[in-house]
Amino acid sequence: MKSIDKAVLDGYNNGAERGRLRTDLGLIEFERTKELLMQYLPKPPAVIYDIGGGYGEYSWWLASLGYAVHLFDLSETNISMSRELADEYPGTNLAAAEICDARAVSRPSESADAVLLMGPLYHIVEKEERLLAIRESFRLLKRGGLLFSAAITPYATLLWAISVFGTKNRLLEEEPFIKMVERELSDGEHIRPESGSYRGIGRSHFHSASELKAELELSGFYDTKVHGVVGGAWIAPDIDTLWKDPVSREALMKTVRLLDLREDISGMSTHLLAVSRKTG
Q1: DSSP code of 87?
Q2: What does the alpha-carbon distance between residue 212 and residue 77 come to, in Å, rounded to a whole number?
Q3: In this predicted structure, what is the pLDDT of residue 1?
Q4: pLDDT at residue 34, as a whole number
Q5: How far, in Å, CA of 55 to CA of 156, rounded?
Q6: Cα torsion angle, 148, 27, 72, 205, sign
Q7: CA angle 24, 133, 86 (to 5 degrees)
Q8: Which pairs from 214-217 meet CB under 8 Å and 24+ separation?
Q9: Residue 28 backbone dihedrals phi, psi, to 5 degrees
Q10: What is the pTM of this model?
């Protein structure tokens, strides 16, 4: 198996994931993903493997609802940080929290009711290696089990740069940045430039909705629905302040639901979530 980009893993081991879902567009991503999980998941105490689950925001929340959740992540820091969330969910425990590569998970075949693969696919840049991770999830799932796969869209970096242009940075004026996003739009390959001021994530692969669906179906999954997790709501100014007002918060979420399955605008959502089923 080919290794994950060192810059990516170093970022996670330096705690980059802490608090990501608790501010700005992360608030929308977390809320909408939870809604979708509740829409599709079987009832507790179903067994869930959260593979590449960061430091466990989804794992601890699902465990508090009565699910048997196993958290796996490649970053030692993320697994260590997951213990911090225990205080937010008194009386709740994870079934496991282990350092693990998504392409080789030490659990028996057909042992999970659902698998969350909501991180690894955009950090595994070789297609055959991504298929290994998807097929490993297929192996782990019971017949009829559900896979939730997250992806970043090829438009995400450029749209973000446009939304903050002139207020937080001037990346659109930098040739190395523009060449980077041209490559993303061409084939989904995200390669951070060696020059310029961009400091985003390291080597990654960004999926279109159709590419994500094709890779899942190539690995044996069917009945895939690809949701635009944050729709266009992420471009609203000052999401943190809006989120504190229940009326404003619901207004934003309503727009996300409206655009959720619209294939003609799915690329506007920075994140996608595919829900697939293992053949029964």
Answers
A1: G
A2: 28
A3: 59
A4: 98
A5: 23
A6: positive
A7: 50
A8: 215/121, 215/127, 215/130, 215/131, 215/134, 216/134, 216/147, 216/149, 216/274, 216/276, 217/276
A9: -70, -45
A10: 0.95
Calculate the dihedral angle through the C-alpha atoms of 163, 211, 105, 90, rounding to the nearest 10 degrees. Answer: 40
pLDDT at residue 212, as a whole number: 97
Residue 79 burial class via C-beta count within 10 angstroms: exposed 0-12, middle 13-18, buried 19 and up: buried
Q: In this structure, how many other beta carbons lie within 10 angstroms of the beta carbon of residue 172?
A: 14
pLDDT score recorded for residue 233: 97
Integer Cα distance of 51 and 63 in angstroms: 15
Residue 106 has what pLDDT?
97
The 3 state secondary structure assigned to 111-138 is: CEEEEEECCHHHCCCCHHHHHHHHHHHH
Tokens for 226, please give them.
Answer: 């690809």
> What is the predicted pLDDT for the residue at 9?
73
Token pair listed for 101? 């590569």
Residue ranges for the chain with pLDDT beneath 50 = none
Question: What pLDDT, on the 0 to 100 scale, is given for residue 24?
Answer: 95
Short-list 128, 156, 152, CA closest to 206: 152
**Which of 116, 102, 18, 17 minimizes the C-alpha distance to 62?**
116
> Which is it for strands 204-205 and 189-190: parallel, antiparallel or unpaired?
antiparallel
The model's pLDDT over 221-279, given as tens digits with 9 standing for 90+, comes to 999 999 999 999 999 999 999 999 999 999 999 999 999 999 899 999 999 999 999 98
Tokens standing for residue 46: 């179903």
Identify the CA nearest to 115 among candidates 239, 216, 236: 216
